[in-house]
């Protein structure tokens, strides 16, 4: 509940700033739709961060959206690689309407520390399987090109 209130306050401040500075006018209905979509996005990502001395922190960790639009806590699905090795995870995304997509890769060591991350916009993709294939290829190329070898 607290995270939603913070999100609502943030959007209210944004609307107020736009009105004050004669910027884009934001409608009530548009703001409601924006907040709903933004909440779904926030609930569908997993955030991990180290302690920040400035006091900034994640509002909620390991959240997933349920059918009723509420978030619930889930256990992490990532498993660590063998000691002394690196694990590369990749993913591809595809928008059927536009034919656009994106790919991403992330490498972590046995302690879960991020070794490298990469992403790429793809302007012409046929389907989700092609996006996944490109993600696999790019992840392997990054590993082979020495992105992992530069590990501190």
UniProtKB/TrEMBL annotation:
The protein's name in its UniProt record: RNase H type-1 domain-containing protein
Pfam families cross-referenced by the UniProt entry: RVT_3 (PF13456)
Domain RNase H type-1, first and last residues per copy: 89-146
Annotated InterPro entries: RNase_H-like_EbsB-rel, RNaseH-like_sf, RNaseH_domain, RNaseH_sf
Source species taxonomy: Eukaryota, Viridiplantae, Streptophyta, Embryophyta, Tracheophyta
Molecular function in Gene Ontology: nucleic acid binding; RNA-DNA hybrid ribonuclease activity
């Amino acid at each position: 509940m607290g995270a939603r209130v913070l999100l609502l306050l943030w959007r209210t401040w944004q609307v107020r700033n736009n009105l004050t500075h004669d910027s884009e006018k934001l409608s009530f209905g548009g703001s409601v739709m924006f907040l709903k979509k933004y909440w779904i996005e926030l609930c569908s990502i997993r955030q991990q961060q180290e302690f920040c001395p400035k006091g900034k922190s994640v509002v909620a960790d390991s959240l997933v959206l349920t059918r009723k639009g509420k978030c619930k806590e889930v256990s992490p699905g990532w498993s660590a690689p063998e000691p002394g090795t690196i694990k590369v995870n990749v993913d591809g995304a595809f928008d059927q309407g536009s034919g656009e997509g994106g790919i991403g890769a992330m490498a972590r060591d046995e302690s879960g520390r991020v070794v490298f991350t990469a992403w790429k916009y793809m302007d012409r993709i046929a389907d989700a399987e092609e996006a996944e294939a490109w993600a696999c290829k790019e992840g392997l190329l990054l590993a082979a090109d020495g992105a992992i070898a530069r590990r501190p």
